[in-house]
Design a protein that fits this description.
The structure is a homodimer of 224-residue chains.
Chain A (H helix, E strand, L loop, with lengths): L4 H16 L5 H8 L3 H13 L3 E3 L5 E3 L1 H23 L8 H8 L5 H10 L22 E5 L8 E7 L4 H9 L7 E8 L4 E6 L4 E5 H4 L2 E6 L5
The structure holds a DNA duplex (30 and 30 nucleotides).
Chain lengths: 224, 224
DNA sequence: ATTTTTTTTTAGATTCGCCTAAAATTTATC
DNA sequence: GATAAATTTTAGGCGAATCTAAAAAAAAAT
């Protein structure tokens, strides 16, 4: 089934608001979508008829199972496109949201699955939010310091707790950026250094001082 | 200025029909856009008011300068996305048109210029059609047999005059596909072989027999 | 040069997503 | 528990883009 851009935006907004409060109000939706409550009511009636939401007048709204599934598809697209924009086209984290708002409505499922593949099936977007997989499953992310990463487990870099020029310089030197896949292959207690692989490349050595500022995420049950 | 998807589609359709006949009829447009002549008339009035077209009732339509410029921007986007889909995501030539019809309406100019850069500023799309540059200039393409390419001139592979499995196998081996940038670095008359570079990589040798089936395009005044 | 045919435009209606203003309902307050 | 305040819905309208049916204009045929 294909839905209008407007309907997709409603579904996405309801999904996000449900995280705060399981029952979403007309007013909250109007605020989120920068529209008027009367317009929201109109749309809720349509979404209800299409069984994307459970809606009863004056009683707020919830996503149905199919509404939830749709929301996750849209969020998947949004976050994969954001990853693409930052990782492949060199956009800054701040400027990608607006563009991804447009790209998330491109309909082809095959496109998004191939993009996912092309990007290396990333688990999180550049802001550190998890990317649902093709089946709509949201990976459970453990965002922790790189120092806490068990040896042999792959993880994606989510955030850096030091944005100084020196730090960025160092990261560039190691070819590490947000989204880069890291794996610890060895730990050396003598000089507080770590041996890691970057994007599956050859092992390199970094200091624990650097690693202490790198926050990574990995799938709960990932064993590779 | 930002225009609706529908308006952009009209402008693009008028541009393409102008290539056949400098004055475009209402009926021709209706056919092209799979809509009704009455709908076309309505839209032409609006486009005329926005000065994207010259339109007088019963007298057909032409693009204005700004209409032409807009058409070229849309076509640029369409062809760059097609290139991306084939080259980076591995889509077949046939399946990309429909997806690019959606992607061409994404508005960000910065996005498309970065994409252009990321793709290596290709001169033609996977079908061999020229890609207008950021200024709207359409490169003049000389599509000729690779054997006719002067030594030292870079050219993009446009089409292959033999689609057999053996040929595709050979191309895959040499990592050559549609859009790949080729340059002849040497010719050996003794065994009818050519030394070429593929995407700026190290020189490799191919047979004239293979080269005879490869059709390439290069910018008229390109000297690199 | 009429008449016929084709093309194009006008007129009036429909759907979608939004609006404002007013009415209905729920929630909060005294 | 009655009343005031906030929320939500209904009613009626608007612009964009489309449609059908009918009228007007241009082109083709006799």
């Amino acid at each position: 089934m294909k839905y209008s851009t407007s309907k997709e935006n409603y579904i996405k907004a309801i999904y996000h608001l449900e995280q705060e409060d399981p029952v979403v109000s007309t007013n909250a939706l109007a605020r989120q979508l920068a529209t008027k409550p009367a317009s929201v009511t109109d749309m809720l009636k349509k979404l209800n008829e299409q069984e994307l939401i459970h809606y009863e007048p004056y009683k707020g709204v919830k996503l149905t199972d199919s509404g939830n599934k749709l929301a996750l598809q849209i969020i998947r697209k949004h976050r994969l496109w954001e990853f693409f924009l930052v990782e492949k086209l060199g956009f800054g984290w701040e400027e990608v949201h607006e563009i991804a708002e447009e790209l998330e409505h491109i309909s082809s499922k095959k496109l998004i699955d191939r993009l996912d593949e092309f990007l290396g099936k990333p688990k999180t977007d550049p802001h550190g939010d998890p990317i649902p997989d093709a089946a709509g499953i949201v990976p459970k992310i453990e965002k922790r310091c790189l120092l806490d990463l068990p040896i042999g487990v792959s993880a994606d870099l989510i955030s850096v707790s030091n944005q100084s020029a020196d730090m960025l310089d160092l990261l560039r030197h190691h070819q590490i950026e947000i989204g880069t896949r890291l794996k610890i292959t060895n730990r050396f207690r003598f000089d507080h250094s770590l041996q890691i692989t970057v994007q599956g490349g050859p092992p390199v050595t970094i200091s624990e001082q650097l690693a202490a500022h790198l926050y990574v995420a990995w799938a709960k049950d990932e064993t590779d």
